[in-house]
Every structure is written in C-alpha cells, then in structure tokens.
Amino acid sequence: MPYLKNALAIEHVGSTAIPGLGGKGIIDIAVAVKQTDMEAAIPLLQSLGYEFRPTFSTPTRAYFVIFLPDPEETKRRYHLHLTYPESPDWHNLIAFRDHLLNNPQAVQDYAALKQQAALEANHDGEKYRKIKEPMFKAIIRKQENDCR
User: Fold this and answer.
1) CA distances from 81 to 57, 87, 102 (A)
2) Which is it for the CA torsion 90, 92, 98, 100, positive or negative?
3) Residue 87 in domain
4) What is the CATH classification number for the domain harbouring 87?
5) What is the pLDDT of residues 60-95, one digit of tens each?
6) Looking at the record's lineage, which domain of life comes first (predicted)?
7) 1 assigned to some structural domain
C-alpha cells in the first residue's frame, strides 16, 4: 500500500491468513500507523475509494471496506483495519491470527464455529460476528495468559 507511506506495519489477518480455515474470500488487512497519524489517514483512505465504516470501528481502530479487481473473481472485498501498534485492536488481531497459525485444533474449532455461525446468522453480518465473538475473546485471553 504505497499510499500509506507512514505505515509502521501491514499484516494479513482474518480467515484468509490461515491455511485451511476457509471463509468468504474477504481479505482482512491490519495497518498500523502512529496514533497521531490515524485521524489524517481516514480522509486519505476515503479519497482512494475506501469506505469508512464508523459503526464497525472502535476508539482505537478505523474500519474500511473496498472492492478491488481480482484475477480469481470479478471483484474481491477487502477490510482494512487502521490502528496503531499500542492499541488493543492491533494486539488482538495479531494475537488471534498467530494463535490460529500455531494451533491446528483451534483452526478446526474455529472453522466449525464459522460454519455454524453462517447457518444461524443467515447473511446477518452482525449476528455472525456476535456468534463468533466468545471464541475470539477466549483465544485472546489464552494468548494473554500464555505471554505472562
């Protein structure tokens, strides 16, 4: 992402970052900038076609969606999570991904939950996220305990 010259880190997170997890083909990218650069980055990303979604953002993470051309599909959906390295959002996104990358059983458990959530939510994105949230939080707590 050359237009984010001040990015401190760019990480592929989400289901597509985990081999064998499956998913909807949405690419989630976490971008860390200095906390002081976050506010200025929002209109910059909007000017490049990223749709800012305040309702899915948090006080420490700005959430964006964009559809870009893709060789495998007509368009692919991307989620961009703009945050800063010291934020809980950055920590949680990376910790969750890293836990799944290092725990095949957790990948299987999460894949099963995602399938169940998709059936129960019936295309309701908010319900889908809420069904998955307890496992996400449990994995983050485990990662925090393992780091102590």
Assistant:
1) 8, 12, 22
2) negative
3) yes
4) 3.30.460.10
5) 999 999 999 888 778 889 999 999 999 999 999 999
6) Bacteria
7) no
Q: What pLDDT, on the 0 to 100 scale, is given for residue 148?
A: 64
In-domain check, residue 2: no
Using CA of residue 108, residue 113, residue 116, residue 118, what is the dihedral sign? negative
One-letter amino acid of 112: A
Domain contains 90: yes
- Strands, E assignment, the chain: 9-13, 27-32, 51-52, 62-69, 75-83
Name the phi and psi angles at 103, rounded to 5.
-140, 90
DSSP state at residue 26: P
Q: Are 52 and 62 in contact (CB under 8 A)?
A: yes
Q: Find out whether 63 and 26 touch, Cβ atoms under 8 Å.
A: no
What is the count of structural domains for the chain?
Answer: 1
The domain containing residue 67 runs over which residues? 7-147
